[in-house]
Amino acid sequence: MRCVIARFPFDLTRNGVLESMKGVKPEPVTDDVVIIGRRHYPAKQVGQVVTGQDRRDFSVGEVLRAMTRLGFTCRTAASASASASMASPYQRASTMLGARSVPDHGQGAGPGRP
């Protein structure tokens, strides 16, 4: 599939991306993510490996658009924060205190609860 990244056209295929990323250790994820196999890669890392371009030459949006068109699952920082805001106040407090994920079991503040 023809994709334009950093103003250059690339003929990318799903198998080509899988082959390029084989053996590449994922860097710590802070923002936008491309899920390749069972690994979560930062979008900029994927763009650099697949295109050979410097990370400053392309945007995250270009990489996410191309990877989505190839059928990879992509997550943005906005979608991650939206799912985090779905947690109850009890769950968010537990997370901030460093506790493992704890089910709420209806103990959080909600309608009719202080």
UniProtKB/TrEMBL annotation:
Residues 78-88 have a biased composition (Low complexity). Residues 78-114 are annotated as: Disordered. InterPro entries: SCO5918-like. This is Uncharacterized protein. It comes from Streptomyces zhaozhouensis.
